[in-house]
Amino acid sequence: MSDDFAIVQEHPSLLAYVDGLQRKNAEQLSFYPKQVFEREAEKGRLFLGLLNGEPCGYIYMGAPAVDVKCHQVCIQYDARRRLYGASLVVAMEDYANRFGASTLTLRCGFDLDANDFWGSLGYGVIANQTGGIRRMRTINVWRKELQPALFEQLFIEPARGKIDASLWAKHKQTGIVTQFVRGKAMRDYRARIVAAGEAS
């Protein structure tokens, strides 16, 4: 990596930059309120990439545990495909290793180019999950082992596809889409949306 790139955990523009870049990339990232970033920065879980002293991307990871979650990684558009994102991932892996983590896990929508990025860094897909109502996307769950495991992790092919917001848009107008739900309630809610779409 060139001498003009650095990774820091403290910077005057950290919170404003992270929140702003997240908003610019809202279709690719999960959304977190700025208060979450404030809390996580205090705990040292936000790493900021600096290119020539200016922010160019960030990574946000979860609490130290046996399995550390990567919640977000984002590089601004004009700095992509130059290994800055990979450098941030290495910093996250070093962070996880310092706390004795065994694995790193993250979620990535099946329509995103980021799936190729994670595969190139040695991560593998362990599961596919149903995403939210609006995008109707499948989520690839990626994992990397940081420590030798007792049993070899079995990986599957990443799901590929395109998002389809047409059902969501149609039923938002009819009033079927009215709330934000998670877990089993979300799965049942999604099934109702899909069934209503097939019936019409």
Give the gist of this structure.
This protein is an alpha+beta fold and 200 residues long.
Shape: globular
Q: Provide the structure class.
A: alpha+beta
Radius of gyration, in Å, reads 18 Å
Strand order within the widest beta sheet? 1-2-3-4-5-7-6
Main traits of this protein?
single chain; 200 residues; alpha+beta; Aminopeptidase; seven-stranded mixed β-sheet; globular
Characterization of this structure:
The protein is an alpha+beta fold and 200 residues long. It has helices spanning 14-24, 34-42, 84-98, 114-120, 166-174, 183-199, and strands at residues 5-8, 46-51, 54-61, 67-75, 103-109, 124-130, 138-145. The protein folds into two domains: 5-163, Gcn5-related N-acetyltransferase (GNAT) (Aminopeptidase, 3-Layer(aba) Sandwich); 165-200, no CATH class. The chain is built from six helices and seven strands, in the order E-H-H-E-E-E-H-E-H-E-E-H-H. A seven-stranded mixed β-sheet has the order 1-2-3-4-5-7-6, sandwiched between helices. The longest helix has 17 residues, at 183-199. It is globular, with a radius of gyration of 18 Å.
